[in-house]
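All the exercises in this workshop are built on plain-text protein records. An example says more than a description, so a record of this kind follows:
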Amino acid sequence: MEPGFERADHSACTARPRTAAPANATDSHIHIYDSRFPMAPNATLRPPDASVEDYRALQRRLGTRRVVVVHPSTYGTDNSCTLDAVAQLGATVARAVAVVDTRVTDGELQRLDGLGVRAIRFNLVHGNATSLAMVEPLSRRVNDLGWHVQIHMLADQIAQAADVFGRLACPLVFDHRGRIPPESGTHHPAFAVIRRLIDGGRAWVKLSSAYQDSTAGPPGYEDVAPAARAFVEAAPERMLWGTDWPHPTEKVGNKPDDAILFDLLADWAPDEAVRHRILVDNPATLFGFSAG
């Protein structure tokens, strides 16, 4: 381990990234888990606690400052844990992505907006609190708040839902590179769906969670790199980066190295100015952080 290195939980990291983080670098995708808040009875992912203090240790390791806390499927539509995390992290450096269903009131959406929420998420891979049928009506409601819709679906699901995405009133963000499978890469129909939405000025992509689809594995995750690079080359102004810490899909003792995940961005986006855009400018635009 690097001398003087601060270890943090939920990461295999033993050294800092080789790539320096710019000022106000943003981790656009993390989750917080806290046993003070009850899990949804039908939750399929039930990871151990991963606290704000645990995450701050990771920030110090990576050099990131701003963060987007994405509400995990574990808590269903009760956003209390995520809102508590944003309050602890601070309004100037933290934003949230909530999960709601069609029963949510306008008053509740306004309350969430005041607490730092800037989007709603539809997790149709691990979650069961929402459905594809809810995406279109809820997109109309959150559009009035200037929010976006965040989508976690497998590539096949994305391709099948192309018509739905084309009708949405608000911008879309696709989690985890659109979950494009390495074996098909840019030839997968979902890649074309996402590219059309990007080219129309309506979509963003999170360059996150390479380990979920890679069979090549670390440190290079070479099999997911072609699609990631293609997204960056096509529209660097529409890319975001995130760790997906504390990596809830991965077993304890088999967590990825977050320094490697950070350095992947330098492989996918070699130009420093492009990385600055992905880490600082783009999340500032999308989530309403101050410029610079």
About this structure: The beta strands are 26-30, 66-70, 94-98, 117-123, 148-152, 172-174, 203-207, 239-241. The mean pLDDT is 93. The longest helix spans residues 272-287.
